[in-house]
Amino acid sequence: MKTMKKSILITGGAGFIGSHVVKLFVEKYPEYSIVNLDCLTYAGNLENLKEIEGASNYHFEKVNILEETGLVEVFEKHAITDVIHLAAESHVDRSITDPLAFVKTNIIGTVNLLNTAKTFWKNYEDHLFFHISTDEVYGSLDDGGFFLETTAYDPQSPYSASKASSDHFVRAYANTYKLRTLITNCSNNYGPNQFPEKLIPLCIHNIKNNKPLPVYGKGENVRDWLYVVDHARAIDVVFHQGVAGETYNIGGFNEWKNIDIVRLLCKKMDEKLGREPGTSEKLITFVKDRAGHDLRYAIDASKIQKELGWEPSLQFEEGISKTIDWYLNNEEWLKNVTSGAYQQYYTEHYHSR
Ligand SMILES: NC(=O)c1ccc[n+]([C@@H]2O[C@H](COP(=O)([O-])OP(=O)(O)OC[C@H]3O[C@@H](n4cnc5c(N)ncnc54)[C@H](O)[C@@H]3O)[C@@H](O)[C@H]2O)c1
Fold it and tell me: I need a labelling partner for 307 at 20 to 30 A (CA). Which of 7, 182, 206, 292 fits?
């Protein structure tokens, strides 16, 4: 690959994970130009990027990945050399009520972006298209075992079906047109900036406000959890050292049943809020299970660990503690994101992702 000044397009950079990736790249690589492209859906929030908004190597473009002309303009204006693609509809429950929105953004939007890169880039050797995906494409592990990079895709929800499809398109563009691509499949993320429709921020929000903590079924579903900054670090490592054409699983080596996470949050919040032990657990309310709820996801992240030397830096309890502190110290952020687009629905249901 030639050494040229990198101008990296990060899509979905105003969202939860994207904002941590943008911050890491802007701060760690002042020699790169970082272009955050995001259409600011309910999940996108520029407040997530206030620490770096004045940085000279940071640019923001409010564009929808469904708008082909908008994408071409951004590629031309910023002479984009590489793409890290995170923009997506990301919430399983929303995919159950509105699958088409997921087909549009996650599949058609990804193909639009692939087409723009394919047309705009002249010598593919000089460029990289890095697609961020999920472990949910592998389906549910109901009887033990772990997802490997070689595990066959078996998506079960409209969300995971749309992500699986986008992964296939990325591989198809690598195979057919010889685009240099990378794909990572990561487990559940938690940490600052996550919209409070997902399990951990929703529970923190509801415990603080003495609202019910709705738990699907019996809370037996198992997920692997990773602190979001560790995911951003993994993306940095794969972008710089990953072998083009490869897939890397990313995970926390950290499986938890949903009910155990909710209980841990209750315990920690009681301590932090000075409440009697056991107070917050009384808020737990079991509700009808999610349709087609996958029982267990568990990722084997040993390939990225062995080949690229990445591993999670934070223990789960430490990460949870930091996360609770962040939400308690950022009431204004929570108030802003929960007004307007936020609906009462999300105080009554919780979702693991
Ligand atoms: N959250 C997780 O635990 C997790 C785990 C593994 C992989 N992922 C993947 O990582 C990526 C980011 O996830 P997240 O949790 O940060 O999501 P998020 O919902 O918090 O953020 C998505 C961002 O994409 C933007 N966006 C959505 N549709 C768009 C469109 N049509 N055009 C332009 N921008 C658009 C939104 O405004 C938002 O800023 C997704 O691709 C998701 O599938 C998420």
Answer: 7
- Beta carbons within 10 angstroms of residue 41's beta carbon: 19
Tokens of 114: 């692939």
How far apart are the C-alpha atoms of 37 and 79, rounded to whole Å? 14
Structure tokens belonging to residue 12: 């979905």
Q: What is the mean pLDDT of the chain?
A: 93
Strand locations in 109-221, DSSP E?
128-134, 181-186, 188-190, 213-216
Backbone conformation region of residue 12, classed left if phi is above 0, alpha if psi is from -120 to 50, else beta: left
- CA proximity to 197, closest of 14, 6, 350: 350
| Residue 39 beta carbon below 6 angstroms from any ligand 1 atom | yes
Q: Is there a contact between 122 and 228 (Cβ–Cβ < 8 Å)? A: no
CA dist 172 and 176 (Å) reads 6
Q: What is this structure's pTM?
A: 0.95
126 confidence band (pLDDT: 50, 70, 90): very high
Range 7-190+226-250 classified under CATH 1.10.760.10: no
Q: Which of 38, 61, 135, 197 is catalytic?
A: 135
Render pLDDT for 327-343 as a digit per residue (tens, 0 to 9): 999 988 988 888 765 54
284 with 262: CB under 8 angstroms? yes
Q: Does ligand 1 come within 6 angstroms of the Cβ of 258?
A: no
Encode pLDDT of 150-179 as tens digits.
Answer: 999 999 999 999 999 999 999 999 999 999
Give me ligand 1 centre to Cα 132, in Å.
Answer: 9
